[in-house]
UniProtKB/TrEMBL annotation:
Pfam families reported for this sequence: PmbA_TldD_1st, PmbA_TldD_2nd, PmbA_TldD_3rd
Residue ranges of domain Metalloprotease TldD/E N-terminal in the record: 26-90
Family per record: Belongs to the peptidase U62 family.
InterPro entries xrefs: Metalloprtase-TldD/E_C, Metalloprtase-TldD/E_cen_dom, Metalloprtase-TldD/E_N, PmbA, TldD/PmbA_N, TldD/PmbA_sf
Protein name (record): Metallopeptidase TldD-related protein
Organism encoding this protein: Sphingomonas immobilis
Residue ranges occupied by any Metalloprotease TldD/E central domain in the UniProt entry: 121-223
Amino acid sequence: MLTTQEAQNRAADTVAQARAAGADAADAVFSADTALEVSVRLGALEDVGRSESSDLGLRVFVGKRSASVSTSDFTPAAIAALVERAVAMAREAPEDDWAGLAPAERLMHGAAPLLDLDDGGEASPESLRAAALAAEEAARSVSGVTNSEGGSASASRSIWALATSHGFAASYATTGYGLSASVLAGEGGAMVRDYAHHSARHRRALESAEAIGLRAGERTVARANPGRVESGAMPVVFDPRVGSSLIGHFVGAIAGQAITRRTSFLLDAMGTPVFAEGIRIEDDPHRPHGLRSRPFDGEGLPVSPCALVENGVLETWLLDSASARQLGLSPTGHAARGGAGAPGVSTSNLHMVNGHVPPATLIADISRGIYVTELIGMGVNGVTGDYSRGAAGFLIEDGQITTPVAELTIASNLKDMFRNLTPANDLEFRYGTNVPTLRVEGMTVASG
């Protein structure tokens, strides 16, 4: 794999070639990664996989016309052909008044923030195999577990570089480690499964294999012999593992492209309450060794922590440069870039700030409700906010989580769900998007 400086030089050299070939402006991204994953099942090695990939994406502008191309062939002849093809395509593309590089005056200058995203380590197949076996063994040791889908452990390292024709060039590296176990309980058609996993930028920050395995086994056994629940309107409490998906739907609704295309259920919500009073949602790209931390965005703009929601009020859209121009606003530093195509937007380390009560207190006054631990399907309409998803979890009776339930459908509208949402105070930073336990009033629950 190239060094970060070599990756940055490759992107910058490609941009220079594009300018020499007739492009008025250009940017290029270079990405490379190596990954190693080991999976085991029933105490035996099942698979060892290693992958290496690299990709170069080039975007060129000729006047108001643009084109994007990508390649994994880095020979001089291939790069020259790539540049020539991109410029020729741009000359034939339709004009776009909003497309273009990020504003030059907004580019990040100086040294990138040090976020400690690369621990510099490498993991051997033997060490990953031992971790995967330990996680699965711990999960299978839980009384009531009847079978296993296996354990897995992985390690990866990635490099990402961006260069533009108006003065930006930077790169950074990240490492990532993961460990998981998935087991089953019950027999035949009554079999249930669950899992546990953990990911970290630094291997030393991973939870122990035994803790992950025990959690997987205990979660699975708790779900055995699920029942049904009568249909009706009732409170629904979302486990943090699945509650983060609600914030994902919110992010999709405030993305610049959804606003410019007028395809968002929050289209006219800027500056108004969209969540209950007191709720704050923060995006923090500078979290040290965060799973989604980054020193700059996909267009070379600086990034910084910000509140998307403050005291329930929507504070900002997520804007790349193109959507910002169309709306007459400024880009927000949320541009995200793949190997080909124009930038989109994404958040970094996103979380909902803790509420004021523990989960037990949050459910104490629920006479009958559902505690959801699994969501199934994607029945969400981003234009209207209508929400309907399959679910499984546990019945809440008289303020206590009791028996497992499955084959449910929970439904409402996201606008109502956000306004009737209460967070507990059990926030943990385990994923890219993190929330505490969430209670939503008045959802419709139907048994399948």
